Amino acid sequence: MIKHHDVDIAVIGGGPAGLAAAISAKKHGANNIVVIDRNSWLGGILPQCIHDGFGVEETGKSLTGPEYAEKYVEKAIQENIKLMNETMVLKIKQSTLTAVNKKGVHKIRYKSLILATGCREKTRWNAMIPGTRPSGIYTAGVAQALINLYNIMPGKKIVILGSGDVGLIMARRLKLEGADVIAVIEILPYPTGLPRNIVQCLQDYNIPLLLNHTVTSIEGKERLEKIIISQVDKEMTPIPGTEKEIKCDTLLLSLGLIPENELARNTGIQIDKTTGGPIVDQDLQTNINGIFACGNCLQVYDTVDLLSIDAKTAGKNAAEHIQQKNKNTIPSKNIKIIPGQGVKHVVPQIINKPGIINLTLRPQKPSNKTPTLLITINNKEIHKKRLRWTNPANIIRTQINIPQNLLDSTRKMEVTINEQQ
Questions:
Q1: What is the CATH architecture assignment of 334-421?
Q2: What is the mean pLDDT of residues 229-251?
C-alpha cells in the first residue's frame, strides 16, 4: 500500500546538515517539514566521532560528535519536525519523492526539497592499489565505527594511507588503544588534514608522516602481512628503486570523500566535476527550481561548524522560496564564477541576483607567502583580500556585493589566489 504525504519542505539526510537546514527552515516560516534518513539513527557520522572539537566556531563550546548531534536532534524534536528513520529515497520526480521503509512505500509531495545526503569514503579501488585481497584493509571511517561503536580493534600493527582528518584522528585513537601505528603515508608533498590534527594526532604521539610516498603493493593470503611503499615524483608516479617493505596486519585508507549525489544525478541536477556536488546559485539552489543542496553532498567541508552554518542558509532560502511562491526557473541572466590560479573550486558556481554573496573556496596548494585573494570581472578588480596563509585543508570564506548593473552586464567572474613574494 502506498502512503501519500504533503509537506512544505522535505529534507533528504538526517546528518548535521539536514537537521540544521530543517530547523532553520522551521524558524523562517515553513511549517510541515520532514527529514528522511536511511540509517536507524540521526546525526550522520557524528555518533561515532567521540573526540571533541565540534561546535567551537559555531557555539564557542568544544563538544564531542555525539553531543553535537544530540543538540540538533533535540532542537528538531522541539520544533515538531517529522523524522523518518530507516527510510530510503528511491527517486525524485515532479515535486514528489518516492521512499520506502518497513511500513511500506511513501509518496511525499513537497514545495521545496533540500538535499543533505552527505558523502562516502574512497576505497582501495578508487586508488587502484595492486596486490592480493586479504582481510585487514579498512577505510578510516569503518575502523572508527568498529572501535567507537562496537568496541572492536581492527588490528595491532597499523599503517594509514592518506592524511585526511579521519585518518589522523584514527592514528591517535589507535595509539591510545595500544596499537602500533607504524606510519601515515601521504602521496602529496603536504598533508591534507587540518593543521591542528597534524599536531594533536601525529606530532604529539610521535607518529611518522611520510610525504611523497604511496602504497604500491598489498601482500598477504588470509590476513594482510605486509605492504610495499614507494616514493613518488612530481607527477605522483612511483620512483623505481625507492621501494620499502613494511610488515603490518592492518591498512587504513584515508583517501578522501566522495559526495553522495546519485539521486541528484538521476533527477537531472547538474554536477560540478571538481566538487562532486550540485552546481548551485547564491541561495544554494540547484538548476532545478525548488531543490536546494547543502552539507557534504554540496562540497566536502573541513569542520561541521561551517557545514551547519551553510546548511542553515539553505534551510532559510528553501522556506523563503515557498513564501515568495517564486516558481519561475533559474533566471537566464547570471554570472558564472570561474576558479582561476591557485583556486581548486568555488561555491556557489553562479550568481543570478544582486546583493551580498557569500563565497566559499578551496585553495589549490599550501602557501605561507602572504597570498592575496582576488576577484575580477572582465580583468577589473572588484574584491581584494590579504590572507595570512592558505592550505587546501581549510576552506576560505568571503563576501562580495553584486549590484544590479553588474549582474546585467557580466557573464563571468574569476576568483584567484596570488602569492606575494
A1: Sandwich (2.60)
A2: 96
Q: Can you give the residue ranges of every domain in the chain?
A: 1-122+256-330, 136-252, 334-421
Q: For 1-122+256-330, CATH number?
A: 3.50.50.60
Residue 321 CA to residue 309 CA, distance in Å, equals 19
Q: Using alpha carbons only, what angle is made at residue 230 by residues 229 and 231, rounded to the nearest 5 degrees? A: 140
Model pLDDT, residue 246 = 98
- Round to whole Å and give the CA distance between 143 and 155: 9
- Residue whose C-alpha is closest to residue 278's, from 300, 298, 258, 307: 298
Per the CB < 8 A criterion, the answer to whether 340 and 364 are in contact is no
Q: State the CATH class of domain 136-252.
A: alpha beta
Which whole number is the average pLDDT over 233-259?
96
- Cis? peptide before 278, omega within 30° of 0: no
Q: What pLDDT is attached to residue 407?
A: 82
SS (H, E, C) 37-94: CCCCCCCCCHHHCCCCCECHHHHCCCECHHHHHHHHHHHHHHCCCEEECCCEEEEEEC
pLDDT at 330 over 70: no
pLDDT of residue 421: 45
Q: How many CA atoms lie within 13 A of 239 on its CB side?
A: 11
pLDDT interval class at 325 (50, 70, 90): low
pTM: 0.94
